[in-house]
What we know:
By secondary structure, this protein is an alpha+beta fold. It has 24 helices and 23 strands.
Amino acid sequence: MDTSEYMPMFLAEAQEHLQELNLAIVRLEENPSDRATVDEIFRIAHSFKGMSATMGFAQIAKLTHEMEEVFELLRQRNEGLPREAIDTVLACLDALSGAVDSIESDGAESLDPAPLVERLHSLVRARAAEDELERAAEAALPKFVAATTAGERVLHVVAVLDDRVMMPAVRAHMVFAALGEHGELIGGVPPIDDVEQFSGKRIEAWLTCAHEEDVVVATVAGVSDVVGVEITEVAQPVADPQPGALAEVVAPAPGDELAELDDHAPIIEAGPAKAKAAGPVGVKSSAARTVRVDAERLDALMHSMGELVIHRTAVEALTSNLEIAGLQQAMQELTRSSQALQSMVMQVRMIPVDVVFLRFPRLVRDLSGALGKEVKLNLVGSETELDRTVVDALGDPLVHLVRNSLDHGLEPVAERLAAGKPDVGTLEIAARHAGGSVVIEVRDDGRGIDPEAVARKALERGLIDAQAAADINMKSAVELLFAAGFSTADTTSDISGRGVGMDVVRSKIRELGGEVLVESVHGEGTLAQIRLPLTLAIVSALHVDVAGGPYAIPLDRVERTLRLSEQTVRSVAGRKMLVLDDGVLQLLDGTAVFGRQSAATHEFVVIVRAQEQRLALAVDDLIGQRELVTRPLPPVVSSGEPVSGGAALADGRIALIVDCDALAALARAGAGAGPGARSFSETSTVTALGRVAA
């Protein structure tokens, strides 16, 4: 059967299944008694195995089948699996993810499941040994109760055989025979009457015995191939014994991989993500109402929608002055219908940010374990929707912020306790809508940013001088963290310390037309906030003219517009400043900023917001508000101008989308302000302007 036509669907569903399994395993580690999650894990694993087998990927199907054997343990024990077992399962998921990626890139699985299968088998064998011990203890319980009632002493004996033993069944028979010399055997592992099939290395027995323990040890140790003997006296069980009572008073087997739980697993509270684990009815209903569509088709649909918006605008302009009966009514209906269609197309492209959030429970678990920290993760607003293009590009910046919070922000347990904080740190990742934008926040209750420590590191690296280091404040320290190559880590590790991170975050978010803000209180925590447009496809913008060229400023960055001739302009240190009632802003010349040639005087000024500051941009004319379909521009087209894309206008010209954050960078560098310009903050500018006026 030719399965090539089903390959895109297989890859998409495989990635979804693996993401869901990662999240479910980490969630179950925090709450082992969550039976709904156990059932969800079985359902997903079984579906994934069936898909893989149908597509002919035998190695993936084999490894998934072996994982199901371990998942069966989850149904048999309410206390969950220890961290080592969880690590093994997650390692299998990583291998499966790598195999899926390999299939997507070159069509081959590139998976050798043998080492992982052996690790899974060891987990199953350990559980089987534990079950056998419990069965043997329960079988011995009646004799044990009778012996203790009669006042007899009961010993639990463990004999360990050499790894190279050739006949373990014979040695087990010899151990039982040796113990029989000191008392009555009331139970054992393997069963005393059935040792012929024994092939293990650990022999256990319970016997009534009045002899000294060292005498019994010497007798058992004299058996060939016995390399270790341990004896403990068994405490008397409750008066009304229940099945398993004897097993509870027997110490766990040393080295048992399922005996002890790890105390350092992070606590995961996935918020809305938990609600997504619906029952079978909900799953069927959702599947019946969902259709998978290739992303390229959605892009083509959006492109056609953009063309329709452009043509509609052109027709509106052509018919605005025509006096034809019914024409204006028809145009209004056309506009209303096309706007409804535009809104619907935009909604089709929107997907929940939960697609990105799914990776963080696993990431937090792994990093907190590696760093020796205890972390509680809260995911808030996972249902918040974003344009698919934005969601695809959001993952890496968020990973950088989360890693920074875990490594630099949250303290080790001892340090938190010394600071009077709870031993478990809190990391919250939240998403919400704010007008035409979406806000994503990464917040921790860690040590916060220490401006003095940042200044010392920056001074060592030659990024600032001694005077700047002495005058450092929180805002300046945050800005230094975004410098390329800067890191506050004393040592380099595979987690951090290479100075690659925050500058990459800012660059990536700026490419998406957004901004990154960081707030911190030393000793209390840090908040990193990402603001992004809901969509990159269609943007509401203010259309302006600069030296005959069309430019578009995103409307969510525009504070207000003014007529330049009615404002007060001063020159400070070779830089033009716009004096307003609510502050003094640097005035950028649009002609100089965009590299155009014009001797005309600018008529208007646009106040824009960029990187926690305001700027004034002088332009020739204000054309009006437009809805523009954006297109990315190659760097050679923008010629280094502070623009982030382009949009076709109704008259066929291309309007360049202004990058307001890039304007802020140019303002700090003195671009458009004349020669010899230096960087001034708003506060220092007000002071300087006061001296000039005096």
